């Protein structure tokens, strides 16, 4: 007779977690609802219909802009821990009781094994497009020059179109007012809903692709993706939230500074060593960013407090984003999954994390109410999610087809065009010193790409010479 006790215990852990979440969210709701009188909406006029009870998300929106982001961040983290904590408890229990090694299988035990042990490999598990950072595909040498140019234009248009659209809409949604009923204008404030909508569409697209290609099995335990997913949604949230305090050109330039935290994370996580030119270009980028921040002004966000908050949010964005890329690199080395598998796994956990947090806060309700009152927001949100998902697919395709260098050049050009486009559409002012800062940043990026390629060519010639001199076969860098 099959033993149902382990299954019952695991379900009990899940039920207790849901109960605790509901209890804590109710306490938070009551605490915020009883806040300072000036931050709470006035009672309805006599004879008017009573207002519906505000969700936790709407109560947070009523707080002062200077610290409401911190309050929302703490509530978001609690929502994410509602997935993390039961996951850790189930893992500890399954490991201690050898639950995954049981002979009597159930749907629940199969799911637990898939999450914590992986599924093994077969002939279908080989990456179709290789890990991020791979060089040109094997078919690259078989294409004619005309085909190469056409394919390069395809990647250029795809990346430029998707990410320029994404950038313009991102700034519009987070900084511009939408006109609602009775011509009242208001801002959309819940950054996490945007992260959720982007990730759920990305997950659905990649899941359909993997099922169609029968490429959904590989060695990596599913939970390994949760770490990259957590850092990914945190970086995306900080990125959206920063637009409430700094302008879009500042954010784009700050992204170029990711090289610095990526190098730091690379040393910590992977023990990487870097060349002199890499340190030099990192310093140039930092100097250019300082010039830009000093020489650019935005009168609508000019206070020292908002500028400091914006810089702090961008710093957190770069830290989490640099961890994401390094952790994904380690997963590629350890499990050799394809880029689409990586995108699907990360987006799956991102959907779970943000969905659980939004459900706890009532974020779905408040966002849907805003969407009903502001139809243009719905169009912008859908196009934003589609452009984000398509952009991710073009990233993987471009890297697999032309290599990381061509991809870096295209994305650098995209950043320059994005700054110009944002200044033209939203009328941002940048002084001469700010322009000099922008030029220094992009010069450093192109110098970094050139030095990287030059160093690789020298190493390849040296290895070929060594192979020819010894009479053996020349070494080939794959």
TrEMBL record:
InterPro entries: SCL35B1-4/HUT1 (IPR013657). One of its GO terms (molecular function) is 3'-phosphoadenosine 5'-phosphosulfate transmembrane transporter activity. This is Adenosine 3'-phospho 5'-phosphosulfate transporter 1. The chain crosses the membrane at residues 7-28, 69-91, 149-169, 193-210, 276-296, 302-320, 404-427, 433-451. It comes from the Eukaryota. It is found in: Membrane. PANTHER family: ADENOSINE 3'-PHOSPHO 5'-PHOSPHOSULFATE TRANSPORTER 1 (PTHR10778:SF13), SOLUTE CARRIER FAMILY 35 MEMBER B (PTHR10778). It is a multi-pass membrane protein. The keyword Transmembrane helix applies. GO terms for biological process: 3'-phosphoadenosine 5'-phosphosulfate transport; transmembrane transport. One of its GO terms (cellular component) is Golgi membrane. Belongs to the nucleotide-sugar transporter family. SLC35B subfamily. Keywords: Membrane, Transmembrane, Transmembrane helix, Transport.
